[in-house]
Write a structure and sequence with these properties.
The chain is of the alpha/beta class. The chain folds into three domains: 182 residues, FAD/NAD(P)-binding domain (3-Layer(bba) Sandwich), CATH 3.50.50.60; 121 residues, FAD/NAD(P)-binding domain (3-Layer(bba) Sandwich); 117 residues, Enolase-like, domain 1, CATH 3.30.390. The protein has twelve helices and 25 strands. Strand 24 and strand 25 form a beta hairpin. Helix 1 runs parallel beside helix 8. The longest helix has 17 residues. The chain is globular. The N and C termini lie far apart (60 Å). The model has no long low-confidence stretch (mean pLDDT 93).
Length: 444
């Protein structure tokens, strides 16, 4: 069997690994227009903030040439795919044809660059899965001391924090509506905003940018009431699925603008699969379509598509519970499922509680946690959660992701046994669950 994979990021690489595990004889070719193997944008702020010492430390595992040589997988870097000939079942690169039995599209996404008057490409940065973007930003940081970050998603917040870690005097965070809007409701976002301002980030919210222009060696960001003079502007306005090649090949595009796939991750052509940021995802709560552009989603879908390619659609992809976590100035921000706003917009009878717990492990200088839980009043199931703490929140987020995926009744969720020791983090999810149960009138 011949398998071609377009895209060398987490999704494409995971698919290739699974194919090789299941079929020692398969011919596997990975194509990437980039000069090096992909790296998730979420890892780049670690180097930029010097939590990781060098870019070389991100080149590990399947981001190394030797990894693929050992597995007899051909990786074609600096090789852009210009066409997919579905009739002949081949892809075309620089005039050369490469035939396939199965094709996997792991095309990723491209950063959204807002349209403002005056943009000229000078001292303007963003991050993609191309490590060259991070290196270019890192090089610019050394000679600067003031910057504007446009966008309130997790990459924007992490870059803002990284710049302060590098000793920047002024970091402006310009957000059009709300920070972390895809993951937090406004009441929880306020807690993160407090953390940002306490650590020297100057927030402009809502930000109405009228113009961004180059003045000498600096950038001028024009707002309705003032001008901000900075050394560079970093754009973190999200990413859009890279679907140009799929559209050119006549594959069906979904309502979200990403490549339409079925439960096996096949596109409208059964010999072509799509994974990761370029595919149209769906949430596991209502089944409605959405984009979910995180490395974890790329890995999960890459795993499924790779195995389905060899085993003949043996695994069904059921959608995502949208789990998420980031860390900003020592605070972990975790979320899963719907925000209360999104739940109501989806027509659900959302009921929520917000609980600030006491200090965890007080004798060991533990930290408090802030919980928001959202339930569907009709099904009495959990449909969303948001947690902020200086303690580790990932274990709780993951547990609640399982509960949401299984549509577990809240009265059953609260009865699940949990481990405990005063030496480690104490999971106090039972406290907000009890409040939510009372608000729903359960067990009376």
């Amino acid at each position: 069997m011949k398998v071609c994979i377009i895209g060398a990021g987490d999704g494409g690489s995971t698919a290739a690994i699974q194919i090789r595990r299941l079929d020692n004889e398969a011919q596997i070719d990975i194509f990437s227009k980039r000069a090096s193997l992909g790296c998730p944008p979420c890892e780049m702020p670690l180097v930029i903030g010097r939590a990781v010492a060098s870019w070389d430390e991100l080149v590990r595992g399947f981001r190394q040439d030797l990894f693929w040589e050992k597995r007899n997988v051909a990786v074609h870097l600096n090789t852009g795919v210009t066409d997919i000939d579905r009739g002949e079942k081949c892809i075309i690169t620089d005039g050369r044809k490469h035939s396939y039995d199965k094709l996997i599209l792991a095309l990723g996404a491209t950063p959204v660059m807002p349209v403002f008057s005056g943009l000229d490409g000078k001292n303007e940065f963003s991050l993609s899965t191309d490590m060259a973007d991070g290196v270019a930003l890192d090089d610019a940081i050394d000679s600067c001391s003031e910057a504007a970050v446009v966008g309130g998603g997790f990459i924007g917040l992490e870059i803002a924090a990284a710049l302060k870690a590098r000793g920047y005097d002024k970091v402006y965070l310009l957000v059009r509506r709300e920070i972390l809007r895809s993951y937090l409701d406004e009441d929880m976002a306020e807690k993160v905003k407090d953390v940002l301002t306490q650590n020297g980030i100057e927030m402009v919210l809502p930000a109405r940018i009228e113009k961004i222009a180059t003045k000498g060696t600096r950038k001028c960001v024009t707002l309705p009431d003032r001008d901000l003079a900075v050394d560079f502007v970093f754009f973190a306005a999200g990413a859009k699925p890279d679907v140009g090649l799929a559209q050119k090949a006549g594959l069906q595009i979904g309502e979200t603008g990403a490549i339409l796939v079925n439960e096996y991750l096949q596109t409208s052509d059964p010999n072509i699969y799509a994974v990761g940021d370029c595919m149209e995802n769906w949430n596991i709560i209502t089944g409605s379509k959405r984009r979910h552009q995180l490395a974890t989603s790329a890995i999960r879908t890459g795993y499924i598509a790779g195995r389905n390619t060899v085993l003949g659609n043996s695994i069904i992809y059921e959608g995502t519970a949208m789990p998420f976590v980031t860390k900003v100035f020592g605070h972990q921000v975790g979320a899963v499922g719907f925000t209360e706003r999104e739940a109501r917009d989806s027509g659900l009878a959302a009921v929520s509680v917000v609980v600030d717990t006491p200090r965890l492990r007080a004798r060991f200088d533990g930290r408090p946690a802030h919980y928001k839980l959202i339930a569907d009043a009709e099904t009495k199931t959990l449909i969303g959660a948001q947690i902020i703490s200086e303690e580790i929140v990932t274990g709780t987020v993951d547990k609640l992701a399982i509960a949401i995926a299984l549509k577990m009744p809240i009265i059953k969720l609260v009865q699940i046994d949990s481990c405990y020791s005063p030496h480690v983090q104490e999971d106090q999810i039972a406290v907000p669950l009890h409040r939510l149960i009372d608000k729903l009138g359960l067990g009376r």
